[in-house]
Design brief:
The complex is a heterodimer. Chain A is an alpha+beta fold. Chain A is built from 11 helices and 12 strands. The chains are: A alpha+beta, B alpha+beta. The interface between A and B is medium-sized, with 18 and 26 residues. The structure holds flavin-adenine dinucleotide. Chain A: GO terms for molecular function: FAD binding; oxidoreductase activity.
Chain lengths: ~270, ~775
């Protein structure tokens, strides 16, 4: 690790102003992505600004039509929250599958979304549930937030403060673990809104990060059942291809995981 | 057996310090004035070094020295050696290329050291390393065996034309060919034995200290065999004379073979400590472990088995290419030859065997012994062939094996080994019973009705352990003898120290070795201390590998113990005015049989040291040493059966059951044996399902971290069902065979046999990842 200056602001505003003062500042939440990269000397921020201790960034609240999870809330707190388990059990389940207990007690939803790892779990839920990402400047819809591999709509220095999720008629997540990293080799989140709209998002599969899967959305809109996907064909074009999964294998996983997610959603 | 004697599951003495974080590993050691080394490593798999500019680094804060490969050559430090000479079929010796501890001219694998920075702190060394400018001219790389043997392939070493190190054969080729000509059936397989990264929990580390007025070096290092390290460093590397070098291997956090070898970093630390006049410490990180620890396995094999009309095996023909990496590591040459091809008879009566092994250089990190070393590769070949044959001949796989088992002992195989004892029927029967073999077809049918693919796989392994009789290995090319030495010291107050050349790095010697003393003298193990891992304390030793610590190391202790007992009995007889032959040892007392006269061990010990009243002519003191050289290898063997269920939708395999029935001879501590089997099985299953080192076409290691290299985790493994069938080893007085490698040797074939059975496709490579299994089920559509 290179030398850096560590800050512990107590408000979002203070964090944002510290950011502008640093020559190459970085926010720190759970540190489960940033710290390993710093240890390997692949990142050398001048200033590290810890968001994890800012009270207004932690917690889960019910809203009129859903729930709001504040950015520095850990995966463990989401997985074990009664509010989430009641309103969106599939989201609590997704959080319970992230990494291992140590990771879940440190890693945060805000950090995961800001990082937008192409194999991370949360992006699938945020995109399929049509969630809204709130920042210290604005609200960004899920469809506008994810911009490809490790990139998002966030401006330099912009802080995610919370994510709000609308409740659904049905929702389910099925994840196939990457054998080594245990991120998603492919994970699929399926959701049906009270109005009957269907949104399906896959993570871990595409070369461009999390994506919607229109063919599956159409089939499920017509008939919400696993069997409805039997004859859907997923193209391997643009899917990742590596030693752990070829692109045709991942195309298969998109379909199979979607079927299992539908079954789980009931 | 007493409560702490042989056969008791005594809780491990050493665990208190390990589980409370109080172990003392190399990295825990801090010397006064210690500096820190950071190596500059090649980012290229194959390149010429055009220039190295260290001037900017020298000016960086805290830098004590920057040293390069050219300097180590200029100082006449010897090249690394391979200590086992293999002769090719044409009678020529093996073609060993030069391996300097840091590359002066050419780099041959990613991660090879070219220079080192020594600084006051680790971070300063790292900072300065970034200021060292190395100019490379990239050369075309040879990333694997197929690339190495292609005509016109880039050449790694001028000494080895065609990148071939040796082309070696064993067995009778003409007789084997004849057996195939007259065969009723022939079964053949192409097998890839995947390359593995050992990944001991503790990365390698070294601290070197030079005492200038004494011209004496001390090296603290992560070694499985500190005396061998000292011998090699002094005899071949010209760093220090043996009596001017102390090597200490304190607590070592796992080795699995990878810490047998002497590595460049230890050599450089020693050499540098003299050059900079300060102690030098290097602790590798996990990336360095992936890039520079010797890897394991990596074979390409074509294997064929001939059967007569009664399904008896009449011949086995094997051709194997072995990847030894960019340089020949210390014992690399012996692994795919004498530790592999000599085990190709498996548990079977095979009259004719012929094997050819061609070892090649590639632009990858050196490959050497890793848990099992050659024997897992051999067992995999034989057991995959057997299972394949059963399917092809349409007979039950267990029956086919039983029909061909060796049942008469001793048994001379056509490939050197003379099996001393075993009962292969007993272990297979025990495993079949444990898994309810007879009930499998019903379970399979039920699974099928639920849309699941279920399969069963058998693996009957044998290994040659306790390596080995020195005379035998000497005649086969080994550069060292493979005996073990021990000293038993009874102190004047009756407590006991046992000095052993075996090294414990997870095996539990501090407990099992004490159990022998408890058994013999009837004293509690708390009165016994095991001393190991320091060349200044222990007389000599060959170290720990090849499941040899009990069969060879503990037998050496027994031999020393017998001498101690004989002398103690003389002293007791003298003091008790009895005949030496009437003295018996019970519960720490020397008793005159049939009387109530006795003398406690401390009194005998005290008498030995006060020497006021000893038999005439007897030397004072009570300590004895022994060297023990075994008369044969030992042959642990067993049967593993695995039941697997495969999810056709994802290709994921899940264990339904895994049973192991092993014959390790006498068990010293069944609990420790169980732990050893669990660990071995985890590594064997890891090879079958999860682990595989992959280099890309340019020679970059793709699997250079745990994000891409799949280490087995607890939830990847089933709850093993273990049992033992026992034939006592006739080759040593304890009757022990060894248990450290068995699991890693036998497990992988059982797993692959089960999955291929489940999916009905025999073409499946390790690691059998879900992706590969899914493709094997569905094709490449
Ligand atoms: C061993 C291991 C296993 C893992 N397994 C999984 C898995 O299975 N699935 C999965 O999805 N993830 C997994 N992760 C990732 C982990 O769950 C975290 O989600 C991830 O590391 C990022 O969250 P963090 O809070 O640790 O962020 P940090 O590492 O602190 O930050 C990550 C990035 O986000 C930025 N950032 C953080 N918070 C904010 C904010 N509020 N606003 C703007 N920018 C911000 C930081 O500046 C940094 O660039 C794993 C991580 C590890 C170490």
């Amino acid at each position: 690790m290179y030398q850096t200056t560590y800050h512990r602001p107590s408000s979002v505003d203070e964090a944002a102003s510290l950011f502008t003062k640093g020559s190459d500042a970085k926010y720190l939440a759970g540190g489960h992505t940033l710290i390993p990269v710093m240890k390997q000397r692949l990142a050398s921020p001048s200033d590290v600004i810890d968001l994890g201790k800012i009270k207004e960034l932690v917690g889960i609240e019910p809203t009129g039509d859903g729930i709001m999870i504040k950015a520095a809330t850990t995966h463990h707190d989401v997985a074990s929250s009664e509010t989430v388990q009641k309103a969106l059990p599939a989201l609590a389940y997704l959080a319970s599958l992230i990494g291992d207990p140590a990771v879940r007690h440190r890693g945060t939803i805000g950090g995961s979304l800001a990082n937008n790892d192409p194999a991370a779990d949360y992006p699938a839920a945020v995109l399929a549930l049509g969630a809204t990402v709130k920042t210290n400047k604005r609200s960004i819809s899920a469809d506008d937030f994810f911009k490809g591999l490790f990139s998002t709509a966030l401006d330099d220095g912009e802080i995610i403060t919370a994510v709000s999720f609308p409740v659904q008629a049905k929702a389910g997540y099925a994840k196939f673990n990457h054998p080594a990293s245990r991120f998603a080799l492919t994970g699929v989140f399926v959701a049906k809104t009270p109005a009957g709209d269907v949104r399906v998002a896959a993570t871990g599969a595409s070369q461009d990060g999390v994506m919607r899967v229109p063919a599956i959305e159409a089939a499920l809109k017509a008939n919400w059942s696993a069997a409805a996907l039997d004859n859907v064909k997923i193209s391997a074009d643009g899917l990742m291809n590596d030693i752990h999964g070829t692109s045709d294998y991942r195309a298969n996983l998109i379909k199979v995981m979607a079927q299992r997610a539908v079954t789980a959603a009931g | 057996m007493g409560v702490e004697g042989i056969g008791a599951s005594v809780v491990r003495k050493e665990d208190r310090r390990f589980i409370t974080g109080k172990g003392r590993y190399v990295d825990d050691i801090k010397l006064v004035g210690m500096t820190h080394a950071h190596f500059i490593r090649s980012p290229h798999a194959h390149a010429k070094i055009k220039s190295i500019d260290t001037s900017a680094a020298m000016e960086m804060p805290g830098v004590v020295g920057v040293l390069t490969g050219q300097q180590i050559v200029d100082d006449k430090i010897g090249n690394l050696i391979c200590g086992w000479a293999i002769t090719s079929k044409d009678g020529t010796g093996m073609k060993m290329g030069a391996w300097p501890a840091m590359a002066p001219e050419t780099v041959r694998f990613v991660g090879q050291a070219v220079a080192v920075v020594i600084a006051e702190t680790k971070n300063q060394a790292r900072d300065a390393a970034e200021a060292v400018v190395v100019n490379y001219e990239e050369l075309p790389a040879v990333p694997d065996i197929r690339a190495a043997i292609k005509p016109g392939a880039p050449q790694l070493h001028p000494e080895a034309p065609g990148n071939v190190i040796y082309d070696w054969t064993i067995g009778d080729e003409a007789a084997t060919d004849a057996a195939f000509k007259s065969a009723a059936n022939i079964v053949s397989l192409d097998i890839t034995n995947n390359r593995l990264v050992p990944n001991a929990m503790e990365p390698r580390a070294a601290i070197a200290e030079y005492n200038e007025p004494e011209e004496h070096f001390t090296l603290y290092t992560t070694s499985q065999n500190p005396h061998v390290a000292r011998l090699v460093l002094s005899a071949f590397y010209n760093i220090a004379q043996e009596h001017k070098l102390r090597v200490v291997a304190p607590d070592v956090g796992g080795g699995f073979g990878s810490k047998i070898f002497i590595y460049p970093e230890e050599m450089v630390a020693l050499w540098a400590s003299k050059k900079v006049g300060r102690p030098v410490k290097w602790t590798g990180d996990r990336t360095e472990a992936f890039l520079t620890d010797a890897h394991g396995r990596d074979h390409l094999t074509k294997a064929e088995m001939a059967f007569d009309k009664d399904n008896k095996v009449t011949g086995l023909r094997v051709k194997t290419y072995a990847n030894l990496g960019g340089y020949m590591s210390l014992f690399s040459s012996s692994v795919p030859t004498y530790l592999y091809a000599t085990l190709l008879s498996g548990q079977y009566n095979i009259p004719n065997i012929f094997a050819e092994v061609i070892s090649v250089y590639t632009n990858t990190v050196p490959v050497d012994a890793y848990r099992g070393a050659g024997r897992p590769e051999a067992s995999f070949v034989v057991e995959r062939l057997m299972e394949t044959a059963a399917r092809q001949l349409n007979v039950d796989p267990a029956e086919l094996r039983k029909k061909n088992f060796i049942t008469q002992f001793p048994h001379q195989t056509p490939v050197i080994m003379a099996y001393d004892i075993g009962d292969f029927h007993a272990s297979l029967d025990a495993a079949m019973k444990a898994i309810d073999y007879a009930g499998f077809p019903a379970r399979q049918a039920k699974a099928k009705s639920e849309g699941k693919l279920r399969g069963l796989g058998v693996s009957c392994y044998i290994e040659a352990c306790g390596i080995a009789p020195s005379k035998a290995v000497g005649s086969l090319g080994a550069g060292v003898g493979l005996w073990e030495s021990a000293e038993v010291r009874v102190n004047p107050v009756g407590t006991i120290e046992v000095l052993t050349g075996s090294h414990s790095h997870g095996q539990g010697h501090e407990t099992t070795f004490c159990q022998l003393i408890a058994e013999r003298l009837g004293v509690p193990i708390s009165q016994v201390q095991i001393v190991h891992g320091d060349t200044d304390k222990v007389q000599f030793g060959m170290g720990t590998y090849g499941s040899r610590s009990a069969a060879v190391g503990l037998t050496a202790i027994l031999k020393a113990m017998e001498k101690v007992e004989a002398k103690a009995k003389k002293i007791a007889a003298h003091q008790l005015e009895a005949s030496e032959n009437d003295i018996v040892i019970e519960n720490g007392e020397f008793k005159v049989a049939g009387t109530d006269k006795s003398l406690a061990l401390p009194m005998v010990a005290l008498a030995a040291y006060t020497a006021h009243n000893l038999p005439d002519g007897m030397e004072p003191g009570l300590k004895e040493g022994a060297f023990y050289d075994p008369t044969n290898f030992t042959f642990p063997a067993g049967a593993y059966i695995c039941e697997m269920e495969v999810d056709a939708g994802t290709g994921k395999s899940t264990f339904v059951n895994f049973v192991a029935a092993d014959d390790f001879g006498r068990l010293i501590n069944p609990m420790i044996v169980e732990g050893q089997v669990h660990g071995g099985l985890a590594q064997g299953i890891g090879q079958a399902l999860l682990e595989g080192a992959v280099y890309d076409s340019s020679g970059q290691l793709v699997t250079a971290s745990f994000m891409d290299y799949t280490m087995p985790r607890a939830d990847d493994l089933p709850s093993f069902k273990l049992s033992h069938t026992t034939t006592l080893c006739p080759g040593n007085p304890l009757g022990v065979k060894g248990c450290g490698e068995a699991g890693a040797i036998g497990a992988s074939a059982a797993v692959i046999n089960a999955i291929t059975d489940a999916i009905g496709n025999n073409k499946l490579e390790m690691p059998a990842t879900p992706d590969r299994v899914w493709h094997a089920i569905h094709g490449n559509a």
